[in-house]
Amino acid sequence: MAEMRVNIAGVEWKNPVTTGSGTFGFGREYSDFFDLSELGAICLKALSVKPRQGNPSPRIAETPKGILNSVGLQNPGAEAFLSTELPWLRQFDTKLIANLAGSTIEDYVQVAEMLGDSVDMFELNISCPNVKEGGMAFGTDAKMIENVTSQVKQVSKVPLIVKLSPNVTDIAEMARAAEAGGADAVSLINTLFGMRIDVKTRRPVLRNNMGGLSGPAVKPVAVRMVYQVRQAVKIPIIGMGGITTGEDAVEFMLAGANAVAVGTAGIVDPYAWIRVRNGIEQYLNENNIADVNEIVGAVQMND
Amino acid sequence: MAEMRVNIAGVEWKNPVTTGSGTFGFGREYSDFFDLSELGAICLKALSVKPRQGNPSPRIAETPKGILNSVGLQNPGAEAFLSTELPWLRQFDTKLIANLAGSTIEDYVQVAEMLGDSVDMFELNISCPNVKEGGMAFGTDAKMIENVTSQVKQVSKVPLIVKLSPNVTDIAEMARAAEAGGADAVSLINTLFGMRIDVKTRRPVLRNNMGGLSGPAVKPVAVRMVYQVRQAVKIPIIGMGGITTGEDAVEFMLAGANAVAVGTAGIVDPYAWIRVRNGIEQYLNENNIADVNEIVGAVQMND
Amino acid sequence: MLCELVGKRKLAEKIYDFTVQCPEMAKNARTGQFLHILCGGEAYLRRPISICDVVDKRYIRFVFEVKGVGTDALAKYELGSRLDILGPLGNGFELHPEDKNAVLLIGGGIGVFPLLFLAKQMKGRATVLLGFRNKQSVIMADEFATVSRNVFLATDDGSFGYHGFVTDVLKNILSSNPVSRIYTCGPAPMMKLVCQIAGENALPVQASLEERMGCGIGACVTCTCTVGGQRKRVCKDGPVFDGAEVEWNG
Amino acid sequence: MLCELVGKRKLAEKIYDFTVQCPEMAKNARTGQFLHILCGGEAYLRRPISICDVVDKRYIRFVFEVKGVGTDALAKYELGSRLDILGPLGNGFELHPEDKNAVLLIGGGIGVFPLLFLAKQMKGRATVLLGFRNKQSVIMADEFATVSRNVFLATDDGSFGYHGFVTDVLKNILSSNPVSRIYTCGPAPMMKLVCQIAGENALPVQASLEERMGCGIGACVTCTCTVGGQRKRVCKDGPVFDGAEVEWNG
Ligand SMILES: Cc1cc2nc3c(=O)[nH]c(=O)nc-3n(C[C@H](O)[C@H](O)[C@H](O)COP(=O)(O)OP(=O)(O)OC[C@H]3O[C@@H](n4cnc5c(N)ncnc54)[C@H](O)[C@@H]3O)c2cc1C
Ligand SMILES: Cc1cc2nc3c(=O)[nH]c(=O)nc-3n(C[C@H](O)[C@H](O)[C@H](O)COP(=O)(O)OP(=O)(O)OC[C@H]3O[C@@H](n4cnc5c(N)ncnc54)[C@H](O)[C@@H]3O)c2cc1C
Ligand SMILES: Cc1cc2nc3c(=O)[nH]c(=O)nc-3n(C[C@H](O)[C@H](O)[C@H](O)COP(=O)(O)O)c2cc1C
Ligand SMILES: Cc1cc2nc3c(=O)[nH]c(=O)nc-3n(C[C@H](O)[C@H](O)[C@H](O)COP(=O)(O)O)c2cc1C
Ligand code: FES
Ligand code: FES
């Protein structure tokens, strides 16, 4: 049996598989399908200082091998999370990652302070395309990334992951800015900004007009970005974007990801997370690889 | 019967359907499948001053509902085109668009001069991700776009379309730069930069490591960008990226495209161009729309 | 869960009636709940389809209209195929055996199908009002007749039954009969009107909502509607909600 | 073109033998050409598969190994299905009826299949050398035997026929027999060696190349190989090239 443990910025995960924030809620629903302790970590739904209602429906549209969503960070707020969700989550033997949302730097700082060390890691969500303020605007400007990262880092009691937006010209620059700001790790990709129009009604399918594209369709872009970020920074990378099988996950790890997240695939198949974890293990065993960390960044580029 | 004619920067096309440059060669192969005069325009394979060999194989990789290519602008050069391909192409009653490739501004200017007014329109390809110099580097910087556009415009004897790269933070800014440089139209999107790794060999599938993603997978990103560009500039837009059916084409036109190009779908189905043209016509007839120009930009945004 | 397709009938143009073998799900199924079906073909997401009936405690029946790529692919499955289905999902209709007066089930279009299971559970107490486009699209009326007290049909063009909307029939009934409760499923404009009429008559009403869905189990929060000022998940908190609280434009 | 699947056999683990009805294509098919098949399932692009035989001038037979998503989906088609196929495509093998001495057909793995049609066209003149992994993977040897002068088999593990590579058999033959020409299809390393040996013996050699393809008809220029210092399209300029000119690492 291959060693599946990975160390992400000092936090040991029992395997490299986590959930894409926002696709797994706070885990309750999926706990009917499998034991959440099987996951390396659970990345929770975005949390903001105050509860948020998100955008009106429809909030989801199907695209070729992908989906657009415009949920817009609906969540019960950090306080309700601490009182209602966290105690329940703590029964599982897995790491918890809180995804931090905000409209201003102060928001991010405040939610980080509210959560303190109640979870194992923070993921700074500066890449959501579905909110008017904050969100993607922060994540597409290197100076902003460095600034918000360093301010949140100052108050963070747990390792800080910065989640990068793919809607940029130069992803490596954004990763370097996060590293410079003190990020302990980066995760990528968040969703690509997209739109779908219903030709019958002549209106965008999403009530919010535009939304974030995820799922298998985006995988080649995500793998490319993970590779580019691996060349640019030293901190660990959590790779995601369309991962559906163990082989997809291996592809991301070969490109340079130290761990992977599965999101949209789980929306289609609630067992996707477990299948991916098992698939990685199977790949390692079939290829006589003793430790999953051996494949991280092990892609051999053609000259 | 609905009116299908469109006017793109003063050039009248008999219908709004053209070919994605590089997916249709110089038309010879597809002329075995249908009469090329059925197309509004034919956008030809990239042409450079000198012949180019392109990149080594494999140059194509399949991805979920898409493909990556790394052809790298293989072409016989402008001279051979003029002597060998153009006379043959002139037998068809359709407009011809030459796609101009280069590594330096001088290259672009020179190829435009060589072609003179031998074709009906030029498309300036400053967005190819598959060449080391020129290509995408030009297309991701607004100042460069404006500069190369204005210099090529000065020598252009025919209307100049500038083809935009989607690998940018702000597509509207790029379109405005093209317009400022004197572009008569813009076309978008070129391919998204991506990568696929073979987990068995641990090498990128493409011999050139990375390549351009096209096909249905990219459609939501392309539609979003066409909409954004429509809000930013006044010049006509040729929309493309994953168009496979008439309804897809209508989606792009509703978003703001005055005409559409089909590329990858034709690689899978040689009749795709004709199916798209017929599909647009069917949509117009079924919806009692007298003129295809009525749907251009006619999307009703949700408030 | 993989469920064998053991029954397949075409009821009308584009309307299919499927029966799948799934003892586990059938055992737990309640009226108003739905299945989330992987259709294949060009459809990437699952498609929600209501439970139309449970047969012999082992089979679930569902009826659907071919609308787009998903239902089109679904309609192509052959007997003996195994469908990947999640379910039963959601909160169904609440039965009120204590109701003394008439209980109205009001369905329109594809909203008719889930009401059959409900009518059956009502053991003959249901008065059913069904609206269709025209005579050709009238389906399952006989089945409803055998399990209900009364069936009223309306068609938009008057080619069968009452000429007009099912909501007109509703008003007629309310004007002359004591009614305890209303259940409704169908197009949003119809349900909105039904709920409004129910409100005017101070009658409790349960409405089964539709929204585009992702996971179907409550995790992705994409399928929300606004109920009582709160964003609720149609898949998990519904699809059946208190009709008085639904904000139809939210 | 839609072609009905009229014959389907499993020849070995993961190897399928399909026959499709397509009089038009069959009439024009030449040895060494290929079909470009829309496989469905998760496969977006078509898949190139060589013509293995033409039967009764109306049917085309092709044999393929299940490798990935495309061939996997292809193998699932049932008799009577209609496959979307482009073809016949490419330039095939050139026949040289004037050849006086032995003509060698050298195949390995899936490269064996297209050689059957070639052997048949040679009307008994062909000497066939086939390489397989092991005894279990030996297929179609009997069929080749009935249409060829001679069949030599080699397996990598010696479990059947000659123990070793088909190129060793080739060397043996060349050392004791006059040979006019060589045709080869199989894994690139094998073909490279065959072409090298042919070169050393000043023999003409035709090699059928494989490359990842898009359109299959010459337009997208994604399937190139380097032949005589030029980038050539495998689909249109090939797949058969003069083996002396192929740059195996280009
Ligand atoms: C709880 C629930 C129960 C349902 N029960 C039935 C039933 O018993 N019989 C029946 O025929 N239909 C039912 N529907 C509607 C059915 O789910 C849609 O008609 C179907 O999803 C359309 O998919 P498509 O691929 O054929 O169409 P497409 O238009 O190709 O679908 C594209 C996307 O839109 C979504 N979508 C399209 N229309 C609807 C809709 N009206 N509601 C929700 N999502 C939609 C699809 O899920 C998909 O994501 C139900 C819907 C819900 C929410
Ligand atoms: C001219 C020609 C003739 C062929 N004839 C036969 C034949 O008669 N019988 C047979 O079994 N196979 C044949 N092949 C190989 C066959 O095309 C591949 O095995 C098949 O495409 C693999 O597809 P997949 O989806 O199963 O595998 P995947 O690995 O999932 O394919 C992924 C992608 O890689 C491409 N690909 C993978 N392997 C190859 C390969 N070796 N050559 C070219 N493209 C590849 C596929 O086309 C696809 O784009 C031929 C190939 C060529 C080029
Ligand atoms: C419905 C939905 C909701 C999401 N919500 C969030 C969120 O709240 N915070 C966040 O950082 N990313 C969010 N994402 C992005 C995912 O976490 C992930 O980055 C992206 O979907 C790519 O991975 P995938 O293709 O595996 O889904 C969301 C994605 C989806 C589909
Ligand atoms: C094989 C291939 C070659 C291409 N070559 C060129 C090219 O030479 N010049 C260019 O401007 N775009 C080129 N493109 C991009 C297409 O013209 C088009 O912008 C893109 O593929 C998106 O459209 P599609 O999804 O319909 O293919 C190429 C695309 C493909 C798939
Ligand atoms: S569909 Fe995911 S929460 Fe309802
Ligand atoms: S596959 Fe398109 S040119 Fe060969």
Question: Could you characterize what this model shows?
Answer:
- Chains A, B: It catalyses: (S)-dihydroorotate + A = orotate + AH2; (S)-dihydroorotate + NAD(+) = orotate + NADH + H(+).
- Chains A, B: Keywords: Cytoplasm, Flavoprotein, FMN, NAD, Oxidoreductase, Pyrimidine biosynthesis.
- Chains A, B: Pathway: Pyrimidine metabolism; UMP biosynthesis via de novo pathway; orotate from (S)-dihydroorotate (NAD(+) route): step 1/1.
- Chains A, B: One of its GO terms (biological process) is 'de novo' pyrimidine nucleobase biosynthetic process.
- The complex is a heterotetramer, with two copies of chain A (303 residues) and two copies of chain C (250 residues).
- Chain A has 303 residues and is of the alpha/beta class.
- Helix content of chain A is 31%, strand content 21%.
- Chain A has an eight-stranded parallel beta sheet. Chain A has a four-stranded antiparallel beta sheet with strand order 5-6-14-11, with no helix packed on it. In chain A, strands 1-2 form a two-stranded antiparallel sheet.
- Chain A starts with 5 loop residues before the first strand and ends in a 17-residue tail after the last helix.
- The relative contact order of chain A is 0.17.
- With 250 residues, chain C is α/β, with parallel strands linked by helices.
- Chain C has two domains: 88 residues, Beta Barrel (Elongation Factor Tu (Ef-tu), domain 3), CATH 2.40.30; 106 residues, Nucleotide-binding domain of ferredoxin-NADP reductase (FNR) module (Rossmann fold, 3-Layer(aba) Sandwich), CATH 3.40.50.
- The longest helix of chain C is centred in the last third of the chain and has 13 residues.
- Chains in contact: A-B, A-C, B-D.
- At the A-B interface, β11, β13, α6 and α7 of A face β11, β13, α6 and α7 of B.
- The complex binds flavin-adenine dinucleotide (2 copies), flavin mononucleotide (2 copies) and FE2/S2 (inorganic) cluster (FES) (2 copies).
- One flavin-adenine dinucleotide (FAD) binds next to β4, β6, α2 and α3 of chain C.
